[in-house]
Write a structure and sequence with these properties.
The structure holds two protein chains of two kinds. Chain A is α/β, with parallel strands linked by helices. Helices cover 58% and strands 11% of the residues of chain A. Chain A has ten helices and five strands, in the order αααααβαβαβαβαβα. A five-stranded parallel beta sheet of chain A has the order 2-1-3-4-5, sandwiched between helices. The longest helix of chain A is centred in the first third of the chain and has 20 residues. Chain B is α/β, with parallel strands linked by helices. Chain B has a single domain, classed as TIM Barrel. In chain B, the strands form three sheets. Chain B has a four-stranded parallel beta sheet, sandwiched between helices. In chain B, strands 2-5-6-7 form a four-stranded parallel beta sheet. In chain B, strands 3-4 form a two-stranded antiparallel ribbon. In chain B, 56% of the residues are buried. The chains are: A alpha/beta, B alpha/beta.
Chain lengths: 225, 360
């Protein structure tokens, strides 16, 4: 397993570098409890929360890059996600988001893919509101009314729940909310054809494509497309 | 050639002989439940309704090979696993591992619990008995189960298992090789015993070896455990039934890596059943593996069966049959179970297409 640290780690000041280095090494070594201890030590020593969060963000993006290069498996990505969540929770830093996404799994309790995308979006600078699992279209619509997100990302992981995705798009339309929000759909049983058929704006076959689609949709929103 | 029964057709194919027609394999918990006339929360606890739904499914859509369908969690309930059962769905509510905080003790302290101690598993076994008594001479039924690592993943939670396999590989593998190995063999052989002599084959599910799911070093170790489990299952089946029951497979992932499985499992399996929409093109699979294994695929259960129309279903079936028929023993099959949205017209078109293009 590699020990290369992301650029963000290398560029930090000398007085915090040792702490951040320890976090990085334990995260990239997938040593969960050691990484947790190193993070607590860094925060206790006064390392700024934002810097700790930024290191975890960089490490998670590095894990994704390694996955894309075929060096990491989904299991690696899942473990990296767990470490990233732990780090963000401990740091509790505030980062200015580039866009707002509401995410959830329609109808079933599957969360592996949805959680990976949630954390990818977070690491990429989005504010993500996770509605969780077993979410129904009405809950998505309520959340859109309340939170006014840029993007709604709705996953369907079992065939039996596909109708819920169509219903969600229809309900956003009926409520007059559809023009203000981009709809991104995904999940193992969906397809580009399905996304087009139900009137979604984007489809992510896998997590990296979902992230790319979210960024594309955000650009479209800003450009008024 | 005289018309065969569905079961004869499939068994002929498994024996690598030429049947009268290409057999069709598909199954659906959702459609069986809908045909039973009762909601899922009643279906799940009523063996007569479960059997009725399956019998109606077979009579209506005429697969040659199918399964008595249920969820994959019931046998793990003696461990404290809990499920939600709604009007139309069964999915896990509580698994053993914590979602947020990993803990190796889950694996280190895992104890053996009988897979047949739960109420729902007893319901399922009763339903299997009713169905096979009614249809087991005419239609081929697969009994099956996953290997020890997949069963462990279902028990602790799939995402948690993937996470923990990287964070604590020793504890994870020790649990799979210890408690879950015995549990897997007992469940697989106990369930198969339910079907008695009516069962056509034992179906081994390969959920844990899909493409990029596991790190390569862990994948080899997992494959070793899976081979060991399957060999133990085969040996026990031989003792119970006095014969070698054919071993079919179920690989519903998008990156099935059939050549890797062939290398690891060799002659321990007779057939590969995988999703035509995966990244293993049928042409390549027939070319590389068709002389060693029965190839079972060709029906895209989502993109064509749900979204397509009868013309597209006809084209899909023709394409698969054109590639495989005559070049290997071939079964026209969905990659995974059919969904509730599958139009009846598409299922009937599938049968017509097989009769049109798949006669030997």
């Amino acid at each position: 397993m590699g020990r290369r640290l992301p650029k963000e780690v290398k560029g930090l000041k000398q007085d915090t570098d040792q702490h951040l280095q320890a976090i990085g090494e334990n995260v990239l070594g997938f040593k969960y409890f050691e990484a947790e201890e190193a993070t607590k030590r860094a925060l206790d020593a006064g390392v700024p929360r934002e810097e700790v969060a930024k290191v975890f963000q960089g490490l998670f993006l590095e894990a994704l890059e390694r996955y894309e290069e075929g060096k990491y498996s989904i299991a690696h990505l899942t473990a990296a996600q767990s470490l990233f969540e732990m780090g963000l929770e401990l740091a509790k830093a505030e980062i200015t988001p580039k866009g707002k996404v509401i995410i959830g799994t329609l109808g079933s309790s599957h969360y592996l893919g949805k959680d990976i995308i949630r954390l990818l979006l977070t690491a990429d600078g989005f504010e993500v509101i996770d509605l969780g699992e077993i979410v129904f279209p009405e809950q998505f619509v309520e959340a859109v009314e309340k939170e006014k997100p840029d993007i709604v990302a709705a996953a369907v992981m079992v065939i039996a729940c596909l109708p819920l995705q169509r219903a969600m798009v229809g309900m956003l339309q009926l409520k007059g909310l559809r023009d203000n929000v981009k709809v991104l759909v995904g999940g193992g049983v969906t397809s580009e054809r399905w996304a087009a058929e139900i009137g979604a704006d984007g489809w992510g076959e896998r997590a990296p494509q979902a992230l790319a689609e979210a960024n594309r949709l955000l650009r479209e929103l800003k450009e008024g497309v | 050639m005289a018309e065969m029964t569905s079961k004869e057709r499939y068994l002929c194919c498994l024996n690598r002989e030429t049947p009268d027609k290409v057999p069709i394999l598909h199954w659906s918990l959702d459609l069986a439940q809908a045909l039973s006339g009762v909601p899922m929360h009643q279906f799940a606890f009523d063996p007569e309704k479960m059997a009725l739904g399956t019998i109606r499914y077979v009579e209506k859509y005429k697969p040659d090979v199918t399964s008595v369908n249920y969820d994959v969690f019931h046998q793990l309930e003696p461990y404290g696993l809990e499920v939600h059962i709604t009007d139309s769905l069964i999915y896990p509510k509580k698994t053993l591992a914590d979602r947020m905080r990993p803990d190796p003790k889950i694996y280190e302290e895992l104890e053996y619990r009988s897979p047949f101690a739960g109420k729902r598993t007893q319901v399922y076994r009763k339903a299997c008995q009713i169905v096979t008594e009614e249809l087991g001479d005419e239609v081929a039924f697969r009994s099956g189960g996953y290997g020890p690592t997949s069963n462990l993943a279902l028990l602790v939670g799939v995402k948690e298992a993937l996470r923990d396999a990287v964070l604590f590989p020793e504890a994870f593998l020790a649990a799979a090789e210890g408690v879950m190995m015995d549990w897997t063999v007992d469940f697989a052989t106990g369930l198969l015993g339910t079907f008695k002599d009516k069962v056509a084959c034992f179906c081994y599910g390969f959920a844990s070896l899909d493409g990029d799911l596991l790190p390569s070093e862990l994948k080899d170790e997992v494959a070793r455990l899976e081979v060991e489990a399957l060999n133990r299952i085969r040996e026990k089946i031989r003792k119970i039934t006095g014969r070698d029951v054919p071993i079919s497979t179920h690989i519903c992932g998008t990156r099935p890596q059939l050549e890797f499985l062939a290398e690891k499992f060799g002659d321990a399996i007779d057939e590969f059943q995988y999703w035509i929409g995966s990244d293993d093109p049928l042409e390549d699979v027939v070319e590389k593996l068709g002389d060693r294994y029965v190839i079972t695929t060709g029906i895209d259960h989502t993109r064509t069966m749900i979204l397509g129309n009868p013309v597209e279903v006809d084209a899909m079936a023709k394409s698969a049959i054109d590639i495989a028929k005559g070049r290997c023993s071939f079964v026209l099959s969905s990659g995974c179970e059919l969904g509730i949205m599958t139009p009846e017209g598409n299922l009937l078109a599938l049968l017509e297409a097989r009769d049109k293009y798949g006669t030997y």
